[in-house]
Amino acid sequence: MQRDYIEQFVLDNREAFDEAIPGLQVWGAVTQELDRRRHRRLIIWRVMQLAAVVALLLASGALLGVYAFGLSPRHTASIEEIAPHYAELEAYYQQQIKQKSRQLASYSYDASVERDLTGLDEAMQELREELAEAPKGSEEQIVENLIKSYQAKAAILERVLERLQTADPGEEKLEGQQHEQASI
User: Relative to the CA of 62, which of 9, 47, 150, 164 has its CA 20 to 30 Å away?
Assistant: First the structure.
């Protein structure tokens, strides 16, 4: 209803609206406002360009640094790379641990043993990370600690197997026979 009134007013007084021409002050204010908005957009555009250039330079510098200096994420070092004379010991203990783990898999045992073995694995992983970052003189000590960890894990597996075999010597044989029957 109000819109109809405004529309009717405009239609009735159209000649008065057509005759009125804004003054120079109005056009000056409009021009000034447009210039101010254009200036703001120009400033924002310059800041965005500067930010893009800085980001591009940082990314280029990082890529160049990785390429030129061989910087790479931390990796675990192998004993073979740092102390080759211990590599044979490491291979022996890894083989022993795999063998005992396969034997242990045929038994049901306490979950605390699994937690202990996982804890040893985590400690060995930490030692490998230390080995990768260790200064030249301290590598030998870290390798010895890593070998001791292998020995400890093999000894724990051996003790658990002995206890399980003395507690129920026929369990492993029964499971082995079941696997043989299933594979035939």
Answer: 47
